[in-house]
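Record now logged for everyone:
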Amino acid sequence: DGQEIAGRGHQQVECSDSAGGNFSDMKSEPEPLTASAFETTPLMTQAAMLMPLMARWHCADVEAGTCCAYHLAARRLTKLAKLLVVGPCTQEFKPSLGVQCPQCLALAKPGGSSRSGICDVC
């Protein structure tokens, strides 16, 4: 079941979004979902970050009409995204709000994999 996969190993919490949700039962202020000090990471950067992950997937269930391994993995990514969107919230998920690359706008934790000052994405 996709909801079990999405929440495995993480603390699940009840949550509602602004499309009809109700936050009146919450006892404390929710954490901000974004940091205003950073620019939005462009979709092309996000896609470049996903490519190495997708290359590590073995997708044995080839769908009719799939032209190549890339589009097979992209279709799997679409299915995964749908599962994550409807799955439970997890409080453990936090964006890496340490530093932002000025070129590709990817985020990284301070002192993370780009200690040399070179972004590990671009």
